[in-house]
Design goal:
about 325 residues, alpha/beta, TIM Barrel, 6-stranded parallel β-sheet, about 35% helix, disordered N terminus
Length: about 325
Amino acid sequence: MKRRLIPRLLRRLTRPSAAGVTVFAFHGVVERELPAPDGCWTPLAVFRAQVQSIAARFEVVPLPVAMTTPAPAGRRRAALTFDDGFQSHHDLVLPVLQELGLHATFFINTGVVDTAHGLWFARLHAAISETTLTRLEWGGGTYLLPDAERRGACSAALQTRLKALPAPELECAVDAIREQLGCGPRPCFAPTSPFRALDTASLRTMFASGLCGFGGHTHSHAILSRLSPAAQREEITRSVAGVRELGLGAAEAFAYPNGQPGDFGADAERILGDLGVRWAFGTHGGLCSAASRPFRLPRRVLMAGHRPIGVRR
């Protein structure tokens, strides 16, 4: 989608008829384009332009304020959120928030904090980007890897297939694909890698800035509907408790991995309510309003290249 479409989207959302709060969702930010494209990692210059465009058209407020306080008459209200807990949220996003004086909420996967191996889709994309092979045979399919664009398409196709698997099978499949591509199953991403997860010191620096709030995103980035109720409770509980244990305050908000309506259900909503979480967000587009269900709230996903709705994480 062409870049000129993002101002058009924002103009539509700021029309008088667009009542409600717009919650924007971002993922990773990178200093420059990845070797193989993935819309969830947005180049820094593009990200800054996106946020500046939002700030020019909305009153950007902390997520709890957006969810509890009516907007002033004639002014549309928005909140910024980030999923997954990449180290770039500290290194690249925080300086932009400080520059513009904006607040954001970060939904983190507590199971990868202080680790170097990253989340499963980061390990997959890194292997596809780095392999010297030009062909992959997996799961009855053939994936050609002759150039950056085809590698990006291959990564997206594999991610879609892998998301259908229960979490343990998914992790094993990623390890097997990495091995087939000539990579070890558990990489050690450098501190500056776009795939690196946040560390505790960075998280606490972000929290101390006063510009960053935190919420849960499960412990391991498992898609909850693929799990038993007991496993869902463990994933959610460890995530919500982990935010507090890291010294980041109470996790009043939660974001569902992948975030489409079929990725969570009544079991997850009940568990979140039991834990005192107030709001839970998906990645289905729309506006949050007084009529919205608190554990099925929508967000507008912004991707690299100003694609307003795209791959969900």
